[in-house]
Amino acid sequence: MKRSEINSYIDKALDIFTKNNCCLPTWAADSPGVWGKRGSEYSEIAACGLGWDITDFGKGRFLDEGLTLFTMRNGNPADSENGKTYCEKLMLGYPGQITPIHFHWNKMEDIINRGGGALVIRLWMADSADGLSDQPLTVKIDSVETRVEAGEEVRLVPGQSICFTPYLYHTFWAEGEPCIIGEVSKVNDDSNDNRFYDALGRYPKIEEDAPAKYLLCNEYNLMV
């Protein structure tokens, strides 16, 4: 992705979140220059991977396969004995923009439609070889047990949520208009706990065609 695209999509996300009264931490819009003047009191933000995450999953087609995420709170996967045991994110999906099929080995998460369009989700359990099982499954939607056929689509309207357990393959996209997606989960570890059905990159390769307006969650070492 081009840096100018990342800047633009964060600007757009900030606008959509603000218009929908989804308030982010006070440091969410801070520039690299501001970050560079900060001290060790901000160390949890870097250690726990908080902040912006704009990904095209290494495919270079963000509006076809991509996602905008902002991690507001998280534990530190490298120090699981000390610290938070939970994570919270806000995400933004655009109509037709697919998050590729994946599961988590360890993380359980609730995914919530926080407003906007419908959130369409397709589900499979993993089989013994980490492929897509053809067996039906049971998930909890708003804490209600719901039977779903393998590969079936589930639609969540604003306010609804679904619980993803480990080894539950899922892919999702917005329908109708951009969808604000909440996540409440166990500690998030994007470096080790994503199993994509097709081999993908988790973070984009960035072409520096413009100065960065914001730092991404894996860029705090670039503070200037």
Task: Describe what this molecule looks like in 3D.
With 224 residues, the chain is mainly beta. The chain has one domain: Sandwich (Jelly Rolls). It has helices at 3-19, 32-35, 43-47, and strands spanning 51-55, 67-73, 86-93, 99-103, 109-125, 137-141, 144-148, 153-156, 161-164, 168-186, 195-196. Strands 1, 2, 3, 4, 5, 8, 9, 10 and 11 form a nine-stranded antiparallel beta sheet that branches. Strand 6 (137-141) and strand 7 (144-148) form a beta hairpin. The longest helix is centred in the N-terminal third of the chain and has 17 residues, at 3-19.
Put simply, the count of helices is 3
Q: Give Rg in angstroms.
A: 17 Å
Which spans have pLDDT < 50 for at least 5 consecutive residues?
none
For the residues shown, what is the average pLDDT?
Answer: 95
Main pleated-sheet profile: 9 strands, antiparallel
Tell me, what is the CATH class?
Mainly Beta
Q: Give me the CATH superfamily.
A: Jelly Rolls
Task: Specify the overall morphology.
Answer: globular
What CATH architecture would you give? Sandwich
Strand content: 35-45%
Broad structural category:
mainly beta
SSE order in H/E notation? Answer: HHHEEEEEEEEEEE
What is the number of E strands? 11
Kindly report the CATH topology: Jelly Rolls
Q: Give the N-to-C terminal Cα separation.
A: 21 Å
- The helix fraction, in percent, is 10-25%
The tally of structural domains comes to 1
